[in-house]
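Tokens as discussed.
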């Protein structure tokens, strides 16, 4: 294939694939944040630490118990989600009627504690987590060579994101969840246990972060700092998409990942700041975000 704008096609499509992978992680993590904020009105700064916990629990299962990647995809979200439920029941539920700032400060403090515990136990250097045998190697697409695991990450992330959107926006359970945020007393009058629903919703959002950590473990080294490095970008994605918007988080996550990848090709110096520049522009034009609604 001829060069595209003077750039070899392998380099261009390679960066697009990298952008899609980063976008998949942005979408999954911002989706968990959007679910928690949209339904609980809590800005969950612990999300990055819970993503890191997902990667570490997968590493522990493999190296301490011999439990492989495929089982980890099922076990880790439930395990880390249960820790999220414990946090919600013991601390967060006391803050729902207070200003958002209190929830942000509490979750930020919890994140620092979790990160510090893992850093003291495992150090700051990364730990390797191997790609499962079934997904090793790659596929020659003619215009580029695509590693199988990276293609799997993009596909499974898209499936999980769309399934979550469908459940929340198109099912009776989702309608109950949305109604509980607007008028919990009315929903409770129909015999629905609203506090339990809220707790399980928070646990689900945390489980999404942990699931993302398992997906990321074979690509990035498992490190106590991996969540801290990513959470600021993910918050920018949520703000651009609109706080609490499920579809906004999905579209914005994948879209910004692709934009970031293309920026690395055409103007590498701006690749680390392009998302934040977009955030500033969006907030100046539409303060509620691209898909958000003014509260």
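Sequence:
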């Amino acid at each position: 294939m001829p060069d595209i704008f003077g750039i070899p096609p392998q380099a261009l499509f390679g960066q697009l694939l990298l952008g899609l992978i980063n976008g998949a992680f942005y979408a999954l993590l911002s989706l968990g944040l959007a679910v928690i904020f949209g339904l609980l009105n809590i800005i969950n700064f612990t999300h990055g630490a819970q993503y890191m916990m997902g990667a570490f629990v997968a590493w522990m299962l493999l190296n301490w118990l011999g439990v492989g990647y495929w089982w980890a995809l099922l076990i880790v979200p439930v395990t880390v989600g249960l820790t999220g439920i414990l946090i919600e029941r013991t601390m967060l539920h006391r803050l729902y009627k207070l200003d958002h700032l209190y929830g942000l400060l509490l979750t930020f403090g919890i994140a620092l504690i979790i990160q510090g515990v893992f850093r003291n136990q495992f150090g700051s250097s990364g730990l390797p987590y191997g790609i499962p045998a079934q997904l090793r190697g790659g596929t020659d697409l003619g215009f580029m060579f695509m590693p199988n695991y990276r293609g799997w990450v993009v596909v499974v992330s898209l499936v999980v994101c769309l399934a979550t959107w469908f459940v929340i926006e198109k099912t009776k359970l989702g309608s109950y969840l949305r109604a509980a945020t607007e008028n919990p007393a009315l929903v409770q009058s129909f015999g629905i246990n609203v506090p339990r629903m809220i707790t399980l919703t928070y646990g689900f959002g945390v489980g999404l972060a942990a699931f993302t950590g398992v997906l990321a473990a074979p690509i990035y080294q498992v490190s106590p700092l991996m969540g801290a490095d990513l959470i600021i970008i993910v918050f920018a994605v949520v703000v651009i998409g609109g706080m609490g918007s499920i579809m906004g988080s999905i579209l914005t996550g994948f879209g910004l990942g692709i934009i970031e990848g293309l920026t690395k090709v055409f103007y590498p110096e701006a690749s680390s700041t392009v998302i934040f520049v977009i955030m500033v522009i969006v907030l100046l034009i539409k303060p509620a975000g691209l898909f958000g609604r003014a509260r």
